[in-house]
TrEMBL record:
MF (Gene Ontology): transmembrane transporter activity
One Gene Ontology cellular component annotation held by this UniProt entry: plasma membrane
Keyword terms of this UniProt record: Cell membrane, Membrane, Transmembrane, Transmembrane helix
Keyword Transmembrane helix: yes
Protein name: Putative MFS family arabinose efflux permease
InterPro entries linked to this entry: MFS_Efflux_Transporters, MFS_trans_sf
Compartmental location: Cell membrane
Membrane topology value: Multi-pass membrane protein
Naturally occurring in which organism (per UniProt): Streptosporangium album
Length: 122
């Protein structure tokens, strides 16, 4: 996103930057989805849904902020800065999440022993 701000005025560099942007963006989806599903073993469908919803919310917020930047008279490359700042924030959150996962050990819930009364009831 930062690079596209500087290459947007020339066709060939802009096309290369857009291709790289798409490639990097596409390459992040599968590892993020795998991480979410691996972390949320108890409710993978809910976690997957929340992950996709977060992506869509990020897209909507970025579009709104990019439009506000253009409307403020910052130029047509201003949304690139908005996107780059949002991406940097997302990367920071991902790094923080990874660090917290390494620092925190979550124990699975203990299973209650099955009593003789419960066996008879079943």
């Amino acid at each position: 996103m930062f690079a596209f701000t500087f290459t947007a005025a020339a066709q060939v560099p802009a096309a290369v930057t857009i291709a790289l942007l798409g490639g990097f963006g596409f390459a992040t989806v599968a590892p993020l989805q795998t991480r979410v599903l691996g972390t949320a073993k108890a409710a993978p469908t809910l976690a997957s849904t929340a992950n996709v919803a977060a992506f869509n919310l990020g897209n909507a917020i970025a579009a709104c902020l990019g439009g506000l930047a253009i409307d403020a008279g910052l130029g047509y490359t201003a949304p690139n800065w908005v996107g780059a700042l949002m991406t940097t924030g997302g990367l920071g959150l991902a790094l923080l999440s990874g660090r917290l996962d390494r620092c925190t050990t979550v124990q699975p819930p203990a299973r209650l022993p099955v009593t003789a009364d419960a066996r008879r009831a079943a």
